[in-house]
């Protein structure tokens, strides 16, 4: 499932690389809270675990077998930030030491397999565990749904990126249907094994499951005199705000990435896919890109005559936008951490102003 | 397993390529891959030049062709995809050997195959001539985030241990007559995965405590000082520079 070089054009590869770097920067800060100070050794061992578990084949149906992606599993076990870091490190190691996955496609691989699976899986998991009364029985069910949803979403993000900057002429809707369909099945397998794995860890060491923190009843000490004191040894449950924050940050980053890259494609001459689709009348029902009117598109078509130069400039501008936005969000998050209690929107205004 | 401390892909040697500091090689290979991806697919000759460049590097590094070919198996799933492209692709069809194939699909199949193969060979050459530990030190010199590099370090160091634990559990399962045949056997696999997680996590805690007792404060001491001379940089840059010259030529020609 690792994307090699040459699958995506250079602009999308670089854009996804910038997105992945911004995402990792956010996660590096967040992971420190999840694993206290033990980030490096613990996350390293968890990454080794994910690497191993990805080799664990399980039968799906009719003789075929699949293997875990592990994003949601890691997110529920060790927390979303650490999970993204661990899966990303697994991908980096596979890219550099096993030649698995192209070096230019690292950004795409990290975006799809680390950030999307962990963030989507964790967001769904948190939404479910927040909606229903917290009990231990809910955790595996929520993990199942989270993992089962995250895999087809990752497949659809892949299709979306392929539509923007893929190098092969395939009808997008049919690819989306095929990818989505196959990955719904794979997602069910992933969800099942994620839920079973988490319930087996819950049975033995419930304190290790990050998603189940704060579930146990507080230890109450009763003295002979009748006084009681509550022992708060266990770390508090992850707050709802923090649980939703990755979703918000991820959504914002994806939007900006699309704004940068899609507008550049809406502007320049249609790529192979769009042209072919146009020739064959596939895109009769397709609407214009919502962002086709952005200044970037004008820039690409009117300002510069040479097509290649126009594409280049627009591509670079798209990447620059992505980097700037990623940096701004990163700083917003960091400043809020330092000052505590500041509103995120207020903070963001201050930085962009 | 049983590979000891050296890695499967790494081939010890003492050539110019082996001796280059890793923080020169890493950007060189990455730049090469970017240049290859940015080359227009119509420029057949440019890809030939890239292949010759890589062959030259392999010859200098004394990496045998058999080794390269064996490691290229990793590409197979995408070769299958690329072969399917001309058949499922859209657009005008051309007749090749009695088959109706999509012209656009043929182009993109060639595009993916050529670029992916060049990328894989470049990565294999990098991994074959650079010790994993040195590669991470190089990444650190390139100012990659400390934490990220350390996570990768610990992962590489303990990967074989964790894989060995998994193998032992598999042997234990199989010696009790278990083979996973269908979905009903998933709970067994999942329990293994859960046990593996607990073992990995607890080992991580032990490793961390052991490191603390040896004075670990969150950063690893760098013992061997890696320094790159201007000449090292120039040597490393020759590969992407030659590739870039080819690419510029292909842009202006096409």
UniProtKB/TrEMBL annotation, chain A:
A Gene Ontology cellular-component term: plasma membrane
GO BP annotations, alphabetical order: transition metal ion transport
Keyword Lipid biosynthesis: no
Keyword RNA-binding assigned: no
Localisation per UniProt entry: Cell membrane
Keywords: Cell membrane, Membrane, Transmembrane, Transmembrane helix, Transport
Membrane topology summary: Multi-pass membrane protein
Transmembrane parts of this sequence: 7-31, 43-61, 73-97, 103-125, 137-164, 184-204, 247-266, 309-333
PDGLE domain segment(s): 246-335
Pfam families, alphabetized: CbiM, PDGLE
Alphabetical list of Gene3D superfamilies matching this protein: 1.10.1760.20
Protein's UniProt name: PDGLE domain-containing protein
UniProt organism field: Sphaerisporangium melleum
Phylogenetic classification of the source organism: Bacteria, Bacillati, Actinomycetota, Actinomycetes, Streptosporangiales
TrEMBL record, chain B:
InterPro entries, per database record: ABC/ECF_trnsptr_transmembrane, ECF_CbiQ, ECF_transporter_component
GO CC annotation terms, alphabetical: ATP-binding cassette (ABC) transporter complex
Transmembrane segments: 43-61, 73-90, 110-130
Predominant location: membrane
Topology of this chain in the membrane: Multi-pass membrane protein
GO biological process, one term: cobalt ion transport
Keyword Cell membrane set for record: yes
Protein name, as recorded: Cobalt ECF transporter T component CbiQ
Key words of the record: Cell membrane, Membrane, Transmembrane, Transmembrane helix
Species for this entry: Sphaerisporangium melleum
NCBIfam families named among the record's database cross-references: ECF_T_CbiQ
Compartments in which it is found: Cell membrane
Keyword Cell membrane found: yes
